[in-house]
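Morning!

This is the sequence you dropped in the shared folder:
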Amino acid sequence: MRKQILGILALIGTAMLGGAPAESEILAMMNYESKTPESLKALKLSGDTPRREGIAVLDVDPGSPAFGKILMDIPLPADLVAHHIFYDRTQRKAYLTALGQSVLHVFALDRFPYRLQRIELPDCKLGEDVIFSEDNKTWYVTCMMSARYIEGDVATDKVKRVVELPDSYPHGLAVASDIDRIVVTSTVSADLQDARDEVVIVEASSGKELKRIRLSKKADKAGESPVELLRVPGSNPPVIYSTNMFGGSLWALKWDPAAGDFEASEVFDFNPMKMGVPLEMYFNKSADRMYLTTAKPGHMHIFDMAGGPMKPELITSISAGEGAHHVALTKDGQYGFVQNALLNLPGMSDGSVTVVDLKAMKAVASVDTLKNAGFNPNSIVLLPEWNDLGGH
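The structure's back. Tokens below.
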């Protein structure tokens, strides 16, 4: 009897120490909207259902038994046109921009279920990006069709200042507090007819516009449409990257301490590869790899940064879905999850999520859950337990 009892205790001890296999999971959060009626018909889905928006949490771990399953679904107003989800630097709060209302939503990530709170924004048509200061005290939201960006307090979520940028279409924003500068892209009008070529340089402390810099090698207006900005992690003097959406290129703004100004130059051209609409940029933790998406036809590109920020070297391009846009990265550097949809635009709204093994540098799976239900995910982040901010 004593041997039987000892045997049972040994089995229990083995289980407690991890002898029983644990089920893996990686949870991703995506805000989504109904596909266009034309897209629904192409997928042989009904185009007569009411428009729908929401935030869904799915298991995106390709090794999980629950891979692709929706674990939580939060409905949103159908006229909000929720755009993108952004985390503050502590990953305790999430902010959701909107294209249909002058409002920003915020919710605490450590309080479940999530409770979305409205932050009313003064005349913010097409709320695009939310960026956070290096000390995580201030958020900035760009208002593409209001020619302004708005500053708010992260602690209280109260609006602090409105900075006007006349005759511009603000989209991307980068903060460089160490040189007292904010850089904002002037992108394109909402109807995509008036594309610009410039970034606006602002004195961060005063909110005063200092100058505008063209990101184009052409003498005349070319409509390059610089869209997203990201400071290269650890760059000193600062180097800020800009993706030129319609120009099909990557540009760098390098700070010249002697001149007290940025010098702009093109550092990569996607046009010879016939890959267009470059969008988002991310870095791994050591900043020796950059991940960049192009939406048409849809790829994630991996760059080697060993030569410095002025000489990014393309390692490989991985096929994703049409509209490849945001990427969510795991903390362990194993996976990148590419969200494939851009504004419900024809030819750039696949609706899937491509799972990329970053170490093997290849696509290994696709999450088609929202796509098959007739929805497009508009952004993707992992829940904080798994999420790497990717240099943002």
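Headline: Residues 1-21 have pLDDT under 50 and may be disordered.

More detail when I'm at my desk.
O.
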